[in-house]
């Protein structure tokens, strides 16, 4: 990782959000461009993007990341945990508080997310579009898409939920690695061992939080307004869309639907990678080149 960085914790009503800001190797270039905000998946934390941050910093981009509430170093307060009833929060206002606190009230962003992070990136873009010049949606499933999975895929999800319910954190984490790493219909072990090991480390922590109702998807995300899938035309800036061949059916079909919904002549670039769900982890070089080509092709360094 680049050494030129700052980080901290931002208080929010529900607890605190951890953020990290990595600066471009060329400080002058970074200061004149939008900041790239990277939003992680529900099976990872902000370190999901380490390889992209190194690459983008070298290319002259400042990068901002954070741990979504209940993930990584972001944490709920004792008061939030002890309050009666289901736990929920609104990620988009939290993200904008991070943007304003770290970058300033007028700062512009290029927002890129993977999986759940892609959905959050799109929702944030629709809610705070005045500050977003471009958005990247990778292996997501926007709110409002109504596709379905193969029954064998759904059976794996049900097994993972059952493991969490009975406190079998190890098996739940292993299933998450298989589903989101190998691909739910692929043979176990398809994923490179080093990537699988990293995913298991993340998911042992996440599964423990979810089993104990103190983080992860045990806290429900709440988004406002109509479903994002029907509002894609509201954002007129450039859009990057990507998906993996071996990913679950719902995700691959939703990403193809996003590209189709944007229609001909709209600023959208879509690509399928020969990967599972975790595109940027499996083929970081290919993914970085894809993002770089998109940034250059739309001259987003001039979009500030």
From TrEMBL:
One of its GO terms (molecular function) is hydrolase activity. Residues 34-282 form the AB hydrolase-1 domain. GO terms for cellular component: membrane. It holds the Pfam family Abhydrolase_1. Coiled coil: none annotated. Keywords: Hydrolase. SUPFAM superfamilies: alpha/beta-Hydrolases (SSF53474). Gene3D superfamilies: alpha/beta hydrolase (3.40.50.1820). PANTHER family: HYDROLASE, PUTATIVE (AFU_ORTHOLOGUE AFUA_2G14860)-RELATED (PTHR43798:SF33), MONOACYLGLYCEROL LIPASE (PTHR43798). This is Alpha/Beta hydrolase protein.
């Amino acid at each position: 990782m680049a050494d030129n960085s700052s980080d901290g914790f931002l208080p929010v009503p529900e607890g605190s959000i951890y953020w990290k800001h990595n600066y471009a190797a060329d400080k002058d270039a970074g200061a004149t461009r939008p900041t790239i905000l990277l939003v992680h998946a529900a099976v990872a934390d902000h370190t999901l993007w380490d390889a992209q941050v190194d690459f983008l910093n070298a290319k002259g981009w400042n990068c901002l990341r954070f741990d979504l509430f209940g993930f990584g170093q972001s944490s709920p307060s004792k008061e939030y945990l002890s309050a009666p009833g289901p736990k929920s929060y609104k990620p988009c206002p939290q993200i904008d508080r991070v943007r304003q606190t770290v970058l300033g009230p007028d700062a512009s962003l290029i927002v890129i997310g993977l999986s759940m992070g892609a959905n959050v990136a799109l929702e944030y873009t629709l809610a705070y579009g005045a500050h977003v010049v471009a958005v990247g949606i990778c292996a997501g499933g926007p709110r409002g898409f109504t596709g379905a999975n193969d029954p064998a895929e759904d059976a794996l999800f049900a097994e993972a939920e059952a493991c969490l319910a009975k406190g079998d954190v190890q098996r739940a984490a292993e299933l998450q690695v298989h589903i989101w790493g190998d691909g739910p219909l692929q043979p176990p072990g398809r994923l490179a061992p080093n990537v699988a090991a990293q995913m298991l480390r993340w998911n042992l922590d996440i599964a423990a939080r979810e089993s104990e109702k103190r983080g992860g998807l045990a806290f429900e995300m709440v988004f406002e307004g109509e479903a994002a899938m029907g509002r894609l035309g509201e954002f007129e800036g450039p859009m990057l869309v990507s998906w993996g061949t071996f990913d679950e059916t719902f995700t691959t079909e939703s990403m193809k639907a996003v590209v189709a919904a944007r229609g001909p002549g709209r600023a959208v670039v879509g690509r399928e990678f020969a990967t599972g769900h975790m595109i940027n982890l499996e083929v970081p070089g290919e993914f970085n080149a894809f993002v770089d080509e998109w940034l250059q092709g739309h001259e987003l360094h001039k979009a500030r």
